[in-house]
Amino acid sequence: MDSGAPAAHARRPRRRRVLLLIGAVLIVVLGLAAAEFARRYIEGEADLKTDPAFYSLPSPAPTGEPGEIIRIEPIASAPAGSSAWRVIYHSRDLAGDDVPVSGVVIVPDGPAPDGGRTVISWAHPTTGAAAQCAPSLGLDPFQYIEGLHELLAEGYAIAATDYPGLGVDGQSSYLLGVPESNSVLDIVRAARRIDGAGIGDRLVLWGHSQGGQAVLFAAERASSYAPELKLEGVAVAAPAANLNALMTDDIIDLSGVTIASLAIPAYTVAYADRYTADEITAILTPAGAKATPAMAELCLLTQTKELHAIADPLVGGYVTSDPATTEPWKTLLEENSAGGQPVTVPVFVGQGEADQLVRPSATEGYVKLLCSQQADVTFHTYPDIDHGLAAYAALPDLLLWLPTLGDGRTPAGSCG
To answer: Structure pTM?
Structure first.
């Protein structure tokens, strides 16, 4: 026993030195993180001061081809090791008319590979339907890009649209598949025009919730709408793929009231050539009709208290019947549900099993539809994961799936 004592005593100073070294490294890392946070906060505050002028366009707004840049400015608060720009670009609405749309583009520092960087076009979950709810308007305009740092570290460029009606004043495109998907594709066209961004023609689509609907529509339409882009795959987390199922599942609770309050004004304007406003809003109770304009002006993530104050009393009394089974809503929701055209590129789907907004049964039904259309599907489910965490839960599997895309890919076996 005595012979081992000196060795034990010798190990203690070494262990102490190791612990001190680890502590010193942690202090440096935490100090650098704090400095980075302070830099981004200060520069983000400075960016906010320029936002009103940047997003305000002359009337009438300039016209241009889809993807042409109207305005662009660098974002000083870009994450360390990257460069970023705020852009306003041309896109098209449901009727095919020119609309200005805002968004952000981020690229990792360093030289681009031969052929340019592959770009991930990110489509965000619901933030609201009013102009002030745009993600790019936030103090941190990158906050809601799920997987931002991981994707930049892998060398991808990221283009993140706000959707029409967010950021730049205009008609809302909430849950309207065509204009949302146009904006998802057109920001890639805009990103490729940025000097120094080094973005090529290879594209992957990635979206969560509302953004899942947007990128699935984009995947269905990319070959006809943006044939110059080489779409390699589409990835979704808890996608709002089947709007009829979404409404049936959610209209009885707060989520459904909120979703409907954002969709009704958008659909009333978008389908004015087919239905009168009275036909579209006839599904509302008197109390629902009175409350809808105020709810549609609130942002989901920053005005939750105000939204709850209006919506909570309307649960169970917002609509007179289920929109998914009531015309013209039944038809309109079907038209804006994914699956109308086959997706010919690989599809990644992630779904939380504890999701009470986009229910697992709805996503499983969509995956079955994809399989019936002979799609190449990779489907993952995550126990105990709710709606808000679905994209983050899916990231490890997504990062393994992305490198498999391209020529020579072996199709996945999720369709059995």
So the answer is: 0.88
